[in-house]
Amino acid sequence: MKKPINKNTKLVHLGRDTKASKGFVNPPLYKGSTVLFPTVRSLYEGGYGYNYGRKGSPTYEALEQALNELEGADETVLTPSGLCAITTTLLALLKTGDHLLVTDAVYQPTRSFCDTTLKDLGVETTYYDPRIGANIKDIIQSTTKVVFMESPGSQTFEVQDIPAIQAAASDRGLTTVIDNTYATPLNLTPLDMGVDVSLHSGTKYFIGHADAMIGTISAKGPAAKAIRKTAHSLGICAGPDDVQLALRGLRTLAIRLKHHEQAAIELAQWFETRPEVETVLHPALPSHPDHALFQRDFKGAAGLFSIILKPADQAAIERMLDGLSLFSMGWSWGGYESLVIPFDPRSYRTATKWPHKGQALRFHIGHEDMDDLKADLTAGFERLANDQS
Ligand code: PLP
Questions:
Q1: I need a surface site. Which of 2, 18, 56, 193 has the fewest CB within 10 A?
Q2: Catalytic positions, please?
Q3: Which residue's CA is minimally distant from atom 2 of ligand 1?
């Protein structure tokens, strides 16, 4: 029997057709709106298989096919941003009078979309404890249609029991959606666990260089059809340059992600030894409360984690962060560069109480030298200590 092809190999070969590219390694970049047809008949019957720029091109198809294969999806829809992947999916699956269940650890703009646009459309949202597991069955209402997961939560890192939530949801015929940006299809394939929709901010690890934005929605069955239909009716499409950058990013995703993973684990362990740090929130560390669940379901970790500092003077913490030279502050992650942001879950959580008092900081670990990163942080902690005294 032939050995199944490893995902790392697939990343290199998917979405490539050497003959169609006339020998060039990479597929050509098709940019365009208008597609020309030689006859009236072909105008209606479809000449070369494409109809209009918004509705697809060989460049789109190359990325869509690669992601279908990686996620095990029937269809992948490309969107101009990760948030647009989330909003398009929810608009496709919900209508007035429906009820939606969303993890309390969800990416904040997802929450804001539910609390504003969906609310205005007459869709009600209930936030649930990310660690609810099988007990989600107790909060499913007669009007509940969709369960939205994000695991681990991209600031607070609770790991969800996806199989337990999936089982309860499918018992009641609900559609399940997961924001899979953290894991990428290399570390988690939710569709194999029965989840209907796995979506990504491809802006993060697919693109990998912080120089473009894209969202991807990979889905199975009726959900896939509904999402494609809504995306077409809303006129959703991604820019061809960004699609090509995402496909290019996939070629090196495995090695980049491995480096992010190893560097983040090393730094998270280092933070555990620091007296200034109260808690490290990294699901790949044995100290994390959901470590067993993470090990059961995920093949690996990303470069993202958080720490909670011991209570300290707020202005001194800000000066400590302002003085870092290698960790920049920015509302993103997944690029080659190290990032840090302070955050406060008390300001947005509704279903669960955030137990920590100290300042929470989220780190994304890039490809800089580890000793340089530790030196930058050590100098930061020294600044903090001198500022307090
Ligand atoms: N999902 C998660 C977990 C994110 O962290 C982000 C962005 O930070 C998004 C979705 C939104 O992606 P985009 O910035 O591409 O709209």
A1: 2
A2: 54, 107, 179, 204
A3: 107
Is residue 376 within 8 A of residue 324, CB to CB? The reply is yes
Write the DSSP string, 200-237: EETTTTTT-SSS---EEEEE-HHHHHHHHHHHHHHT--
User: Are residues 327 and 376 both part of a single domain?
Assistant: yes
Domain boundary, last residue among 207, 233, 251: 251
Query: Using an 8 Å Cβ cutoff, are 30 and 58 in contact?
Result: yes
- Taking the centre of ligand 1 as the mean of its atom positions, its distance from the CA of residue 201, in whole angstroms, is 5
> Tens digits of per-residue pLDDT, 49-105?
899 999 999 999 999 999 999 999 999 999 999 999 999 999 999 999 999 999 999
pTM over 0.85: yes
Q: Ligand 1 site: residues with CB under 6 angstroms?
A: 81-83, 107, 150, 154, 179, 181, 201, 203, 213, 215, 332
Q: Give the mean model confidence (pLDDT) for residues 298-326.
A: 97
What residues make up the domain containing 377?
A: 253-388
